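Reminder to self: tokens first, then the designed residues, so the page reads top to bottom the way the pipeline ran.
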């Protein structure tokens, strides 16, 4: 999401099961998104399990 996008509440916590599902798709989705909105820096604010799902994004 972009910096000006409102964040709504949601009731789907990141669980180990959900993380295993997202691990296959989340990194490529993020790379595509970053490609559309290029920047030299980013500050991801997330809990550790979210970071594990993304892994290294280049």
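Designed residues (58 positions):
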């Amino acid at each position: 999401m972009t910096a000006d996008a409102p964040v709504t509440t949601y009731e789907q916590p990141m669980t180990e099961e959900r993380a295993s599902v997202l691990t296959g798709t989340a990194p490529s989705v993020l790379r595509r998104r970053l490609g559309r909105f290029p920047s030299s820096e980013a500050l991801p604010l997330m809990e550790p399990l979210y970071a594990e799902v993304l892994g290294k994004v280049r």
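The CA atoms of residues 8 and 16 lie 23 Å apart.
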